[in-house]
Amino acid sequence: MQILKVENLYKSFDGADDVVTGVSFKINTGEVIAVIGPSGSGKSTLLRCLTLLEKIDHGTIIVAGETMVTTLPNGQVSYTPEEKLRKIRLRLGMVFQNFNLFPHFSVVQNITEAPIRVGGLSPAKAKDIAFELLSKIGLSDKADAYPYQLSGGQAQRVAIARALAMKPDILFFDEPTSALDPELTGEVLKVIRTLAAEHMTMMVVTHEMSFARDVADRVIFMDKGEIIEEGTPDKIFGNPTNKRTKLFLGNLNLNSGF
Question: Could you say which of 54, 79, 193, 251 would form a disulfide bridge with 48 (CB–CB 3.0 to 4.6 Å)?
Fold first, then answer.
């Protein structure tokens, strides 16, 4: 089943050149999509457009059959009404580079805040879900800790749990290990691997090429705001057809895995 469809998406800032240029792709339920490419290629901006953190300049985004935004024949971008948009937004989870945890909330409060205030769950039910997720990510002993008491890897795992607590249909990751020391990267990627094995639908912007190669069902390579090439990991890493893809991958060491 198709869960996300993106057609001819454009995004620029302050009249500058397009950061995202004519991007189109689809994601099926249960797929893991890795988005790779050089810094500044539009990967993070694409995620921000898909999760309503940025407004697009042109294109269409459809989530689970519901049109989130489209472009009218006169060129005007039209988002669906706010009430419907709010429901679509609840289908989308986002994990940021820098965790974005509330510093004045404990770990369990960080996880339960949105399910209670946005999802309408009772505090007791939200706490039950939080503790289940903390067990899943190996942090049951950190429920009452505050973000400043966590390592970067622990904070990012809590951020993943917070996103999962809202039970999204798609979970987006914006370079989830880029702010971490190399020794902490593995514990975060392990959690994402577990989610992939459970068929969680995910789109992961990442510089971890070995992770993209081993875990993704499909890999998208972006450069200068465009999708240059996409395909299975075997195709992209083993037999890329585009010269730019070959050049990018040729400069990387793909033998270091997690």
Answer: 54
Closest CA to 20 of 257, 222, 185: 222
**Rounded Cα–Cα distance for residues 234 and 211 (Å):** 13
In order of 1, 27, 231, the CA distances from 218 in angstroms are: 16, 9, 5
Would you say 185 and 192 are in contact if contact means Cβ atoms under 8 Å apart? no
Taking only the tens place, the pLDDT of each residue in 110-167 is: 999 999 999 999 999 999 999 999 999 999 999 999 999 999 999 999 999 999 999 9
Q: Which of 100, 103, 97, 109 is nearest to 134 (CA)?
A: 109
Q: Are 17 and 57 contacting, i.e. CB atoms less than 8 angstroms apart?
A: no
Distance CA(174)–CA(172), nearest Å, equals 7
CB distance 254 to 237 below 8 Å: yes
DSSP bridge partners of 62: 5, 67
Q: CB of 174 within 8 A of CB of 44?
A: yes
DSSP assignment of 94-125? EE-TT----TTS-HHHHHHHHHHHTT---HHH
Q: Beta strand 20-28 with 2-11: parallel, antiparallel or unpaired?
A: antiparallel
Question: Would you call 181 exposed, middle or buried from its count of C-beta atoms within 10 A (0-12, 13-18, 19+)?
Answer: exposed
pTM beyond 0.90: yes
Phi and psi based region of residue 234 (left: phi greater than 0; alpha: psi -120 to 50; beta: remaining) = alpha
- 228 membership: H or E segment, kind and range: strand 226-231
If you ran DSSP here, which 8-state letter would residue 256 be given? Answer: -
Q: Residue 205's beta-bridge partner residues?
A: 35, 174
